[in-house]
Amino acid sequence: MAERVILETGKTFSEFSLLTNYTSKECTLQKISLNTRLGNLKLSLPFLSAAMTSVTGYEMALALGKEGGLGVLPARLSIDEQVSIIEKIKGYEMGFVEDPITVRETATIDEVVRLVEKHGHSKVPIADRNNVFVGLFSFDKYLDANATPGDPVTTIMITPEELPCTNNSNISLEEAKKELKGNSYLVVLDELGRLVKIAFQKDIDNISVAAAISTHKGWKNRVKSCIKAGADMIVIDTSDAYNEFTSEVIKEFKKINDSIPICAGNVITYEGAKYLMENGADLIKIGMSSGSICTTQREKATGRAPMTALLEAAKAREEYHQETGKYVSLIIDGGVSAAGDMIIALTVADAVMMGGYFNHFYEAEGEKLDESMQVTNHEPDIKHIATWGEGSARARNLDRYGHVARKTFFAEGEEGTVENWGRLKPKLKQDIRKIKAALSNTGCMDLEQFRDKAIIELMSTYTQQIIGSTHNMQVKE
């Protein structure tokens, strides 16, 4: 008989509901922080894009990195490809927004909010018909204001006198960087007060990027090359990290480097997480067979419900912290596809890694396809984006899934397409607002408080149907 038979069913994120708690008047969306610390790396968003060749390349790593998350470059890329992308991201030069989206002074607040939701910008310039700068709409100020959607946007705008502005329309990037010190943006006008361009502080901040490695031969060269290029984290990416190979890599890595954090995974048990912690991992990645394209459970009957796996790893984290005083961050990888999943996951995890979610965006590496499933580079025609798992016949990531040679390979992932959601920024911003709103409901100002104070409740199947979706009505299309 098996050593242990667990009869309690595994749980995923959508089976839980977040309970509310007391919220002070200070706990508003604009004051809530989603900063997270992964080892000694600080991110302003708790999101990592999966180390999948259909998801993360230069465009995804740059777009997510600019928003404050972390792109993880796949180990299936060559060392030269990883290094080239890291160097390109680290050498990214800020640029002015030369043709910013503007609204007229006659626009309503509702019209501007719709633009914010469409494009993901939190600040929208207001100009008259001659492009003379009138003021700036700030989404944060809108959240604070007691204004109705039909009010003119000018009633809550920030006036030019309150803003960091310059009338030097020929200002250089270096001059703009100096002006940006202490400011989050700089509005550039000409001598007649007409809007020329805008510079943003976030475009000169350091963009973080990570590189994945395997436990197989050649990993040391990859690590040394990627760290030299400027990688902020190294991720051991294997489907099952509860083994001697992974522990040896962690120990050897620590001899090579003592400043860049190393993330090890994936594991799905208390024992697996504790093993990696005891062997020196700075972060642990949790998950197996819960990804949208993964077939490991189907092929090998191996895997675990993601929330159950995460809760088991959290027990190991707590115990290890009590024993050693060292806190090891947990990253959930797989099974997270919407803001609700992210919220429940973040009651336990320090960050969320997503493949399927990020695969939907224009910045993903998969081929872009039109309505007839033909490859296209014309953005308005893109309806679908190609996706494939690292264990699929297309990727054949032998190292990640422990296949010693092609002759032993069998697929543990599918290949297909996902719907195009457009550019990453607008959708990501919407989901960030949902997460912050959930934290506000629980009275939490940041993710650390959220992990300490959140109360979640398991729902029955019937309860999920009642409170998880609309019912007893025909939804208007």
Biggest β-sheet strands, sense, barrel:
8 strands, parallel, barrel
Proportion in helices: 25-40%
Q: Termini distance?
A: 53 Å
Count of β-strands: 21
Please count the helical segments: 15
Mean pLDDT: 92
Record the strand order, biggest sheet.
4-5-12-13-14-15-16-17
Judged by helices, strands and strand pairing, the structural class is alpha/beta
Share of residues in strands: 15-25%
Contiguous uncertain segments of 5+ residues: none
Judging from the principal axes of the Cα atoms, what is the shape? globular
Radius of gyration: 24 Å
Structure characterization notes:
- The structure is a single chain.
- It contains 15 helices and 21 strands.
- With 477 residues, it is an alpha/beta fold.
- The strands form six sheets. The chain has an eight-stranded parallel beta barrel, surrounded by six helices.
- The longest helix is centred in the middle third of the chain and has 19 residues, at 306-324.
Key terms:
15 helices; globular; alpha/beta; eight-stranded parallel β-barrel; 477 residues
List the helices and strands and how they pair.
Elements lengths: L15 E3 L17 E3 L2 E3 L3 E3 L8 H10 L2 E4 L5 H12 L12 E2 L4 H11 L3 E5 L5 E6 H6 L20 E2 L6 H7 L5 E5 L5 E6 L8 E5 L5 H11 L3 E5 L6 H13 L5 E6 L2 H9 L4 E4 L9 H5 L5 H19 L4 E5 L5 H7 L5 E4 L1 H4 L8 E2 L14 E5 L26 E5 L4 H18 L5 H7 L2 E3 L2 H8 L9
Parallel strand pairs: 4-5, 4-17, 5-12, 6-7, 9-10, 12-13, 13-14, 14-15, 15-16, 16-17
Antiparallel strand pairs: 1-21, 2-3, 7-8, 10-11, 18-19, 19-20
Helix pairs in contact: 2-6, 3-13, 8-10, 11-13
